[in-house]
Amino acid sequence: MKHKRIIVFLLAGMLSAGCAQQSAAVQTEETPVPEETAAAETAVPETALPQETAAEEETYPQIEAGIDEISKYGNIVLTIDPEAMKEHGYEPADIVTVRIGDKEMDMPVGTAYTDVDSGEPICCYKFSSSRNREEVVLSVNTGNMVEAMGVAKITKISEDPGYKYEWAEGMDDSTTVYLNMKEKQGFAEEYAMHQLGAVRTNKREDYAHLSDAEYANFRMVRTTGMGAGTLYRSSSPVNPAYKRNEQADAAMLDAHIKTVMNMADSEGQMKAYSEFASTYYAGCDIIPLNMGMNFSSEEFRQKLAEGFRYIASHEGPYLIHCNEGKDRTGFALGLLECLMGAGKEEIIEDYMLTFYNYYGIEPGTDLYTRTADSNLLKSLAEAFHTESLDGIDLAKSAEAYLEEIGMTADEIKTLKEKLSTDFIEI
Description:
Radius of gyration: 25 Å
Strand order of the largest sheet: 2-3-7-6-5-4-10
CATH topology of the largest domain: Protein-Tyrosine Phosphatase, Chain A
CATH class of the largest domain: Alpha Beta
């Protein structure tokens, strides 16, 4: 977007009766105090704090920013950077109110989309590896912020960059986004929980304790009912953004992968990666699905069914991946593991290996449990129309879900047969 502006209006402090003028650079949104309320407050109980203490309560500026980019996942990248936000007092774990047009949404400030539960909004301070800069991104974890806020509608296309969008009525590239402090450090406890050990880099040397395959988040799915050496999961073997693609491609070769379900890229994006033509990956049967992050959207559901049909109609071993092999891949694998007869604990264990490979999150910690509960388990429960996965038949629930998204009984039967076939001896 060419629209680049960051306008910060500092809130006025306490307005005095003699203040007849205010600077043009200062905007105040203080609510006037009714006379009767002010009169009542002059009688301060002995146990109350002195009035001057209340007068010292810190205020924070309203931030006005433009929309720099709308991503294919429906995230809104602002024209302000995290450092500027911090300079004006907006820190991770604060809760802010975001207003775009006539819609408002409260959300915490965090440093990863997964700082909030699946389906929840976040104002995320994050580094963009593709743009090599720190950004402020408004997002919904496994959702679509631009549609939630009525800003634009995204349509996936096969050509690079894999999507296009249309502004909603009254919105365009001059639209202003307003951010106001709602509660200073109001998300502190939840944020702290998500930070325990949650540090990830894209430097191989920082993961000396992992094999190349583990560094690439590449592994065989070994849950109940899966054939040996049949289904694998991974970060992207072709997208260099996370600097794991070479290791993932080498692991594919070792596993003799034949069929790939690429949940992240369009065909144009996939083939545009600089090393694509020289990879083992390029010689496989691949379905590029270009899927978003909103697991409940009709588009996501249709493409998921399309990907599973592709697996059922092609030969294994199979690989399912997105960019990191974490969110979309985690959901798809969770469904297939349920379908094939895995129990809840097996599904959690496989899912959380990704969080060990990236963040070093260990089993038995509060963060381990919270991460699984607030992401995969919540997403699967929503897909199965239940409050919890406890006490339900996961295989039947997964089969019912696949029928709901358009797969036939014969397609599901074939998929199960393919996934149960052994390709190696263990």
